[in-house]
Amino acid sequence: MTRPSRSPCTRLPHSVAHTRLALASALTAVVACSGEIGGTAAGGPPGGTAAPGGAAPGSATSGGATPGGGPAVPGASGGTAGPGTTGPVPTPSPAACQGARPAGPRRIVRLTPVQVRRTVSVLFNGRASIKGGLFRLPAGVDTPLQPTDDDRFSTYAGSHTLSDIELRSGIGQTGGIARALVAQLRATKSECLGATPRPAVDVCAATVAASKGEILFRRPLDPAEVDHYRGLVAANAGALGEDAAYALMFQAMLLAPQTLFRTELGTATPAAGQVTSLTPFEVAAALSYAFLDAPPDDELWTAAKSGALATPAQIAAQVARLAGALDKNDGVQRFLVEHFTYDQVQTVFKTVPGYDPALLYDEVKRFVADTLATNGRKDFLRTLLTSRTAFVSHTTFALYGAADPGANMVGRVQLPTTDRAGLLTQPAFLAAYSDMDTNEPVQRGRFISTNLLCRPVPPVPIAMVPPLPPTTADTPMRDRLAVHRKDPGCAVCHTLMDPMGLAFEAYDDTGKVRTTKVDTSGMLTGAGTADGPFANAVELSQRLASSPVVEGCFVLNSLRYWLGRDERDADGCAIAGAQAAYGAGGDYLALLQNLFTSSVFLDRKAE
Amino acid sequence: MKNQNTMRTTRPTSARFDRRRFLERLGLGAGAAVLAPVAEALVSEAWGQTPTRKRFVVYLCGGGLSPFFNFTPPEFVNGDDTTSPVLNAPKAYTWPVMLKPLERYRNSMMLIDGLANEARASGIGHSMGYASLTCVPGQTTPGGPSIDQYIAGKIGATTARKSVLFGVSGGPVGSQATRVFASAAQQPEPFFLDADRLYDDLFGALGSGGTAGRQALLDSLRFDIKRLSGALAGPERTKLDVYLATIDDFQNREKALQANACNAGAAPVGAAAMRFEDRLSLMNDMATVALSCNMTSVVGVSCMTGNPHSFFPVWKKNTEGTQFADKGFNGGIGHSPGPIQGPAMDIVHGYNASLIARTADALSKIKEGNGTAFDNTVAIYLSDNAEAHHANHKRWPMVVVGTAGGKLRSDGRFVRYPKKGDPGNRSVADFYCTLATAVGAPTSDFGNNGWEKVTGPIAELLA
Question: ipTM surpassing 0.90, yes or no?
Answer without folding.
Answer: no
